[in-house]
């Protein structure tokens, strides 16, 4: 498992060549985390991801969206939104969480009795790879899961426009 980061001057649509399976915008409101979790789980189920992938994708989405809301969106206007996108590249599912804050996510060590601070450690432990991309107006935190292990990566997924 590796952390990858990149600085980018590109728009959020820079991964437009990787098929988009679904996307959703939610308000910057902690009450909407459950909606983001359900969305990613439903996309994984709809696209017949492997056994435990929908549950893992749901958990990791919860962690990344929670980080965006708790650490990234506090100083931003209430009207700010978070965008969640699910993409497929061969056997990999990529979940991207975009917010308007340019604060870089950082992993921290939580003490045994602390009730928070383990989100990115969970992402690192369960994702194949994760990282972030800075944009002019925010960042995208993303993670990869091997969701379709029997997929032939030489045959790209084609979606209708």
UniProtKB/TrEMBL annotation:
CDD domains attached to this UniProt entry: HATPase_RsbW-like
Gene3D superfamilies on file: Histidine kinase-like ATPase, C-terminal domain
Keyword list, A-Z: Kinase, Serine/threonine-protein kinase, Transferase
Superkingdom of origin organism: Bacteria
Matching Pfam families: HATPase_c_2 (PF13581)
Organism: Sphaerisporangium siamense
Protein's name according to its UniProt entry: Anti-sigma regulatory factor (Ser/Thr protein kinase)
Domain Histidine kinase/HSP90-like ATPase: 26-143
A GO molecular-function annotation: protein serine/threonine kinase activity
């Amino acid at each position: 498992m590796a952390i990858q980061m990149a600085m980018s001057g590109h728009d959020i649509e820079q991964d437009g060549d990787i098929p988009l399976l679904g996307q959703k915008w939610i308000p910057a409101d902690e009450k909407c985390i459950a909606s983001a979790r359900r969305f990613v789980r439903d996309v994984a189920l709809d696209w017949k991801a492997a056994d435990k992938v929908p549950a893992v994708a749901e958990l990791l989405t919860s962690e990344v969206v929670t980080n965006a809301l708790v650490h990234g969106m506090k100083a931003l206007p209430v009207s700010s939104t978070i965008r969640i996108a699910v993409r497929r590249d061969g056997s990999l599912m990529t979940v991207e969480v975009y917010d308007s804050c340019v604060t870089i996510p950082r992993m921290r060590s939580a003490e045994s009795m602390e009730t928070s601070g383990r989100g990115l450690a969970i992402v690192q432990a369960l994702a194949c790879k994760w990282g972030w991309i800075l944009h002019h107006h925010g960042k995208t935190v993303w993670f990869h899961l091997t969701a379709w292990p029997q997929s032939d990566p030489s045959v790209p997924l084609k979606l209708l426009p």
